[in-house]
Structure formats: structure tokens, C-alpha cells
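Justification of computing resources. Each target in the renewal requires a structure prediction run like the one illustrated here; the chain below, 255 residues long, is used simply to show the kind of job we budget for.
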Amino acid sequence: MRIVRFAKGDELAFGVVDGEDHVTEIDGHPFQPSFELSGTRLPLADVRPVAPILPTKILAIGRNYAEHAAELGNEVPDEPLVFIKPSTSVVGPGEPVVYPAASAEVHHEAELAVVIGRVCRQVPRERVPEVVFGYTCGNDVTARDLQRREPQWARPKGFDTFCPLGPWIETEVDASDLAITCTVDDELRQSSRTSLMINDVAALVSYITEAMTLLPGDVILTGTPAGVGPLLPGQRVSVTIEGIGTLTNPVVAAD
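Resulting C-alpha cells:
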């Protein structure tokens, strides 16, 4: 099931994508134990998809693909390398990634994003499927020059618009071995599979929840494969994950 969050006029609503061209509105919130459809069915072309969720926090994982760690001259960490991106970095499909004046080297990072569906803490690996609501596409946009200078990554990865998510949440996909790609305009930059993650989804959720409680709608970015590279104003960056969809965002210069 594909759960989309969309704007219709001045209102925001959740809906279920029906095939490829319609959306049926949900009564209330999809994170309820059960939800009903309102009966309002709209052409997908007549609504504007926005970020599928606004998380209280985004937990991101560094160096979770060996080839990506190597391309930046880093060792693979012994344990998951966790950092936090602010919720204010989230934008949805079609919304611009703003190239900040403080950076001269902004990179794309295509990632599988896990969406948490219920309050959870200290989750054992075998129970992780019970707390995962679904998956979406993510782009962990990074000011690489600032990251090299600053040992804490909050600023290099936390600029407004540096966490595109979308286009929807897919609730019925096995995320263990999906193709993941990133293109910039017509150039293929990243191409890999989620099966090459060093720490899989179950390991990451279990590890993170040892330390903190996750809430419905929280997002875990699971790391990026090799092939990261520069973005420039005027370009369009797309993250595609098999079985989920494509997230596309233009890049614009800061005012």
C-alpha cells in the first residue's frame, strides 16, 4: 500500500495511491491502529504530493556501505555511526534543495528511508518488523566541505531542505534487497542494492532503540552507497528505489 501525503488547496491530507493515477483520501491519520477511507477519490495529477511524513527526528547512518566509506577515504565503523538531522531539513517531492551560501560543495546521497509506525524502545531484531510502518526514498544532502572541517555533522547535514523524502510511504515491500539509484539530470551517479548495507534495517532499529525512544513517523536514513557527488543550482536530482518510487528535487541557489 502506498500512503501519500498531499495538498489540496490550502489543506493537507493523507491518502492511498490507487494504481498509478488516483488517490483515495484517508479519514484521519494512517498511523492509527486502523483507518478508513473517506470515499473521496482524486486524480493524482490534481493534487500536490508533499513530504510523506514530518518526523520528530531523523536518525541517519554514516558509512553503512563499504564502497561509499572507501570512496571518501574512511574505514567502516565497528558499530553503526548514527547522527541526527533536524526535522526542519525535510522537503517533499518537487520541492527545491537550496544550495547554501556557506558551502561550495554540496553532495547528493541516495538512501532507503525507514518510517517508524509505533512508539518503540529497546526493540530486539526479531521484533523490528512490528514497529516499521513502511519505506520511502530519502536524500541525505550534505555540505561535504563543511563536513570535512566539522567533526560534528549537525550543520553540514542539517541545512534547511537537506532531507528530501518521498514520494510516498510503501508499506508492503521487502526492503532487504532493492535496487537503489541516483541520477542528476540524465547522468547516473549511484547504483547499488540495499542488500549491500553493512547493518540491515533490523540491526539499525535495534541499535538505535537501545538509546532512544522512536515515535510514529520518525525516520531512519539507512546510509548511502558509493557514487556520491556534487550538485549545482539548476540541476535536478532523483532517487529511485525499486518497489517504492522516484523522488525528484530541483536544486536552486540561496537567495
